[in-house]
Request: fold
Amino acid sequence: MTDLTRFTIAQAREHLRKKDFTALELTDAYIKAIEGHRDLNAYIVETPDLARERAKESDYRIKTGDAKYLEGIPLGIKDLFCTEGVQTTAGSQILKGFVPQYESTVSQRLRDAGSVMLGKLNLDEFAMGSSNKTSFYGNVKNPWKAKGKNDDLAPGGSSGGSAAAVSAHIAAAATGTDTGGSIRQPAAFCGIVGVKPTYGRCSRWGIVAFASSLDQAGPMTRTVRDAAIMLNAMVGHDPKDSTSSPLPMGDMEAALGKGVKGLKIGIPKEYRPDGLNAEVNALWDKGAAWLKAAGAEVVDISLPHTKYALPTYYIVAPAEASSNLARYDGVRYGLRVPGNSLDEMYAKTRAAGFGAEVKRRILIGTYVLSAGYYDAYYLKAQKVRALIAQDFEQAFQKVDAILTPTAPTAAFGLNDKITDPVAMYLNDVFTVPASLAGIPGSSVPAGLNSDGLPLGLQVLTKRWDEETLFRVSQVLEDAAQFPSLKG
Reply:
């Protein structure tokens, strides 16, 4: 029989409904694949018994004609989503052993749609990082290798475990979260599709918070159609999240196939800085040509405040993180290091529980929120953020979508750049502006560089317009004919 892990969600769903194989057989194939790829360190917690139990329930529903939208599809869940009865760590020592008694809204919706959870996926600690090197549970390895080399490469971050698992066929798809590019950048590094929907589309309830005005859940899949299928199950208003939108999204799977004829695609000049990698630049031009050949009009646009996006993000996000992470004090849950006083226990617990990158961002955030610097840094950053959002609003009066590279380079070596945090932050230079503006974005694998490593193209559309996002993404996917990772 064909290796069942080679099927996309759409294909597997069809085969399951035709009873070509059972959900239990499909789940067992993924469990076996996970066991054979533990060297990637993609999973923090594997849940094979739970997966088999849910697969059997799926088989019963399929047998009785009650199959749900994602019935029997095995998924990996990023370990930032709280899962009832299953350890949730956010990749941090401070939450080691924390077992929630509730389920996040997004993972509950996927469960209600009939999906099967294979386990919890590795990530940068509290989603802070672009390489997956900051996880307390060790780095994830990118399943791709440079041509003729055996060096381990970074899978990107923070959703590096999710990207590696989907790319290596040890999950049919996975959840990710995107605060400044943490779905799109690892998707580009691992040669998969990653979608960050409009801020507010997916409930944040039950997702361990990093920066509350930026965090957004989204799907990570092997095809654009799979991303549409998965997003359909993830979105929806949630009264438990005050930022959750009541606006209906429509069926993204039904939107596929409409093409881009008559659409205007913007190419922002600010995303072509001096020294941009020549292969990334060439792929960007090729992507624009593909869309033009499909009937779209390609026009040059300007997003003048782009150059301020990265410094703005690294003021706003750490400020919100400083506030959100104040709850980890050793009193209520997770790690506790005893001290001679309450203050000493707080200090010892946080010193032992948080890694270097998390501490760095808490310090930055606390500094910019302090009395003497609030106006000079945080308030000013919020004003610049509004200007960045305004740039996009004005651009979308002229164009229907924007095309850019996803990341400035292909995947780098696991030990590259790690000594220079600023160099690491620059990996998010193309993804951060959309996060600040709250608009939807996708990364589509569009080609390989000279080392045989994946490169992604990013599509951006106006708020609440995921339909155009998927239409453009699918045209790029069809034109690129990207080779899925074998083995």
Residues 168 and 487 are 8 Å apart (CA to CA). The chain has a mean pLDDT of 95.
